[in-house]
Each structure stands twice: as C-alpha cells, then as structure tokens.
Design goal:
8 helices, Fumarylacetoacetate hydrolase, domain 2, 19 strands, SH3 type barrels, 5-stranded mixed beta sheet, 20% helix, alpha+beta, 12-stranded mixed beta sheet, 318 residues
Length: 318
C-alpha cells in the first residue's frame, strides 16, 4: 500500500493510493462495518484509522489490516456515498497532499552519507567513524505539491534529495541484523538547505530549519511492498536539468547501520522519520555554485518509492 495524509473537507485524513484514486480509509472502513450491520462503526473506524499515516502505523497490524479491508471495500464496485454522504474515494489529482507524517516526534537527518558527496565537499565536513546526525523541526515540513519557501534573508537555498525511512514500531538498542524490522515504510525527502546559515557554525540547525524547506512525500510505501532500501535509484531534477543521480548502495552507512546507531542513544517510535542523506550534485559545490530561485520546480524521484515535486516560492512577510 501507498499511504498518504491528505486534506479532506478542511481536515487531515489518512488515505491509500490505488491507481489514480485515494481511498478515504476511515470513511471506507466505517461504511464496510455499517453495511455488515456491525455496531459502533464510527467509533471503531476512528480508533483504528486515525487521520495521519503516523497514527495508522502506531496502530500496528490491526490498523494495517483494517486499512486493507477499507481499500478492498471501496474498490469492490460502484458504491453509494458513505457515512454522512461522504465519498469513499477521491481522484488523486484533486486532493491536497500533506506530509505523510505531518508532526513526527523525531526527524533525524544524516549528513555526508554518500561517498561521492563527501568527495565533492572536499573534506569540508570532515570524516567520522559514526554517522553525522542533525535534527529538523516538524514545522519545516511540506507535502508533495506544496511550495518550498526561499527565505528573504538568503539567496543560498539548495536541494538535497534523500530516501526517508518512516519508523513503524518502537525500538531501542536494536542490533543491525534486526533493524529493518523497525521500518514501517519509505518515502522521498528534500532536505532543502540554506547554505550560508548552515555555515554559521559547526552546528547545522539554522540552515536546516527555515519554515517550509523540508519536502516530504508524496506517500509512504509500506516496507513489505518496497524494493531493497540498499539498492534504490535516486534522481533529483531542477526544472528539466538532472542534478543528482545515485544508488542508495553508495551510502557510507546503510539503513540498518543507521537504525542501529540511532537507537543506541534514543528510542524510535512509529511515525519517526530518518532522512538518510544526499548524494553528490548539490548546488553549493558546483562551479559556480547554483542555488534555487522562486518559480523553479524540484523533483525527487526514487525508483519503487515515489516522485516528490515542490515548486520554489519566495517567503512572504508574516
């Protein structure tokens, strides 16, 4: 399944993408229960299928099973309107997608995690025997189709296409051999960075946390339906120009190693997001440097996972 969080009648809702349609999971599951004559349908649907992908993953196997039943029910054939006249499905092209997990408890990002990116940086970030980690705030996230904002205080907004790992179960001090069992699914991420603010000190927090600079989506592909995370093709284009192209097999620290290390110092829980780092081809290390300007469109595509698109817009006064 490909799970999304989308805006439905002014509120967040969790859905599953099938072809060109989005199944409204809570509505479809409630409708299924009601048509079978089962009691407390609305209450049970709301409890099992909350309005975000993170909440659904927290529900574990029972929630995912309910989601599959909802999809099967909604797509079984022509359906009358569901509860309170609500449609069970929407055209994907007609819905506004939010970040799949709008408010993760943790967003942990990995720096300089591809060999070629370390080479293009020419030692600017040094080398370390452990992953270089930093955090993003949930308030920086934007979904597929939403604009990434170039801040007024800088002209050095850069792209960074990455594989995002979305945690599906709680884990602490997890061995590498067992680490992939924590993964709920995978998504695309654009860790857009304000380079001059990143260079203000050895801590990268300022350059990574401007509002609306973390593209995330369009959906989460469940781990069981996704290809091997160690052999995924990643491509980033700006407009029609290809800027980054690599395989996740070139990571210095692969997904199991990252999860082993991160859980050595903090527990991970469903809905947490790990952005696994970007390959070479960022704008800052080009000659001359190349940065994003309003009106450009950035696309992060990961084979077997998805295609995230965000247009760059100028930051507006608060």
């Amino acid at each position: 399944m490909r799970l999304v969080t989308f805006r439905e009648h002014g509120a967040a809702a969790c859905g599953a993408v099938e072809g060109d349609r989005v199944v409204s999971l809570a509505h479809a599951y409630r409708d299924r229960l009601e048509r079978r004559g089962e009691g407390r349908a609305a209450e049970r649907a709301a409890a099992l299928l909350p309005p975000s992908v993170g909440g659904l993953l927290e529900g574990g196997a029972a929630a995912l099973d309910a989601a599959r039943q909802a999809v099967d029910h909604a797509l079984a054939g022509p359906q009358a309107p569901g509860p309170a006249g609500q449609p069970l499905t929407h055209l994907l092209a007609d819905v506004a997608l939010l970040p799949p997990v709008p408010r993760p408890a943790r967003i942990i990002c990995v720096g300089v995690n591809y060999h070629d990116h370390a080479q293009e940086a020419k030692g600017a970030f040094g080398t370390a025997p452990y992953p270089v980690l930093f955090t993003r705030f949930a308030s920086t996230l934007v979904g597929h189709g939403q604009p990434i904002r170039k801040p007024q205080v800088s002209d050095e907004l850069d792209w960074e296409g990455e594989l995002a790992v979305v945690i599906g179960r709680w884990g602490y001090r997890v061995a590498r051999a067992e680490a992939l069992a924590l993964v709920g699914g995978y998504s695309c991420f654009n860790d857009a960075t304000v380079r001059d603010f990143q260079r203000h000190s050895s801590q990268w927090t300022p350059g990574k946390n401007f509002p609306a600079t973390g593209g995330f989506g369009p959906w989460v592909v469940l781990a069981g339906a996704a290809p091997d995370p160690g052999a995924l093709e990643l491509t980033v284009t700006v407009g029609r120009e290809r800027m980054q192209h690599a395989s996740t097999r070139d990571m210095t620290f692969d997904v199991p190693r990252l999860l082993e290390y991160i859980t050595s110092f903090t527990p991970l829980e469903p809905g947490d997001v790990i952005a696994t780092g970007t390959p070479s081809g960022v704008g800052a290390f080009r000659t001359p440097p190349r940065f994003l300007v309003p009106g450009e469109r950035v696309t992060v595509e990961i084979a077997g996972v998805g295609r995230l698109e965000n247009e760059v817009a100028a930051e507006v006064d608060a």
